[in-house]
Amino acid sequence: MEELIQIIQANIQYAHYIIFAALLLAGLNIPVSEDAMIFISALLASKHPDYLPHLFIGVYLGAYFSDLICYSLGRFLGPKLFKIRFFANMVPPERITKISTYYEKYGVITLILGRFIPFGVRNALFLTAGLGKMSFIKFALSDLLACTISTFSFFTLYFHYGESVINYIKQANILFFAMAFILLGVFWYRKKRAV
């Protein structure tokens, strides 16, 4: 990560474009960490305050458009994605049905909470929204709200507290992931018992 920060810092006037482009690749499920890009942007903004608006807008729009790309993959390629092993392993057909049910039942809350769950859950949610044929307008507006909350929150924390807050955020992410996993388990168990 240090090398990436150094490369971007050496080209600070283009940093927001580099970060934006990297996040667009993440929308294609190329392993680029949104969290890392937000951290790098905030860290650079704290060292170069003149570039703060550029860096925030670059990371924010990159994260948002990345989500739209991922959604579009699911929406327009649909079942063809399952012929590609990477995607087939990422979102099994049963999971599409489950997540589509969450979208119908909880709507925006699913996206807001999903954006805070680490470990590749975000892209799986966005891809599933597309595969489940969620309305584009509904997805775009819901994700705009979710992306605004998460990007602004993390950027602000990293900007003000830098590396000292990373471990706390990692622990919170793990806790959040565990809670989501437990809630899904309880939901699944109750559903099984009802049948």
Description:
The chain is an all-alpha fold and 195 residues long. It has 10 helices and no strands. It has helices at residues 2-10, 15-27, 34-47, 52-77, 85-90, 93-106, 108-115, 121-131, 136-161, 166-194. α3 runs antiparallel to α4 (52-77). The mean pLDDT is 82.
Structural features:
195 residues, mainly alpha, 80% helix
Helices, by number, come to: 10
Strand content: under 5%
What is the CA–CA distance across the termini?
49 Å
Q: How would the global form be characterised? A: globular
Helix content: over 70%
Topology at a glance:
Blueprint: H1 2-10, H2 15-27, H3 34-47, H4 52-77, H5 85-90, H6 93-106, H7 108-115, H8 121-131, H9 136-161, H10 166-194
Short description:
80% of the residues lie in helices and 0% in strands. It has 10 helices and no strands.
